[in-house]
Amino acid sequence: MSGGYLKGRIRRDDIVSAAAAVYGEAGYHASSLREIAKRAGITHAGLLYHFPTKEALLAAVLERRDAEDAAREQLTAAPPGLDVLRRFIALAEHNVRHRGIVEVYSRLAAEAVSEDHPAHAYFARHYREARDSIAQSFHALAETGELRPGVDPDLAALTFIALMDGLQVQWLTTPTQVDTVGSLRLSLQTLLTVPLFPN
Amino acid sequence: MSGGYLKGRIRRDDIVSAAAAVYGEAGYHASSLREIAKRAGITHAGLLYHFPTKEALLAAVLERRDAEDAAREQLTAAPPGLDVLRRFIALAEHNVRHRGIVEVYSRLAAEAVSEDHPAHAYFARHYREARDSIAQSFHALAETGELRPGVDPDLAALTFIALMDGLQVQWLTTPTQVDTVGSLRLSLQTLLTVPLFPN
After folding, report:
1. Cβ contacts (< 8 Å) between B148 and chain A: which residues?
2. Which fold has domain A1-52?
């Protein structure tokens, strides 16, 4: 790895971090590349060299978050089943210790419901993939009799992902009154015939 | 009621409707009273007569929504129990037919997680009241044996409110893939020992 390449990578990471911070504070639409460049300690022209458009920078922020989550919790590595559900709980535990990224994500998700928002396709795909991953696990649990009879695996998957998102906004608003992890554990446990976390 | 008073009321309502539309499209922070006045077909000075600040207009938008919801579903009229839960389901059914107001609400909620946002106190109070109302019903159901043993009523209330909010954002993003009402019914039913909607 050449010194110039490494320097470019670091610079790029700094810009992505600055962008995430600015999105969290002002939202994506109200942010400007000029403001983000200032925050990253780089010239406007320097930022444009790495990210020629607002949309390209937004995509980089979202992709970095996904890559970090996936690497940390190895969400896609476990076979469908209880272990996948436990990894999503671990992700929620991680998020509670990282308010900044949760704020960025919640804010962008609400902005991006419009089809013309540049992050719309990202969130549509993100929700679909998250639902599919969880649904696979619920289907596997249904086959082994670990899912409560009568529970629809696909509907349960939608419910779990929506609950994660809704808890985040409520927790950001009133942190001391919201037990995010407790709520997720309760919600999953009531769907199962076996303990989610055996003693 | 004098003609002048009535005209003032109508004008005020028009401004509140225009503000809700602009918040839904641009968010609160990126909106301006000038843009809202234009949308309402009133002069900037005319708008300032009714709403001297951005914050006053935001408060009016949120208060109108609460008043409309409460009047329609009579959320506060029923004694704690199954009927209150059914009224929240009815509210969700109503929301699915009114995308615009759901978009405004979801967007403002995500913006208002910061303590310095002018709608922060509103959302903190709104969440607390919604949780309290639902918690009272779960406590009543626990006493009659209609809540599943081992389910914490307060945690279940938090879960239900968070689920409503999370479903809204996911439904706004991918409407055809999200069964909001089905998810809420499943989630409530798994917490109960009796049918939520008897056949």
Report:
1. 190
2. Arc Repressor Mutant, subunit A (1.10.10)
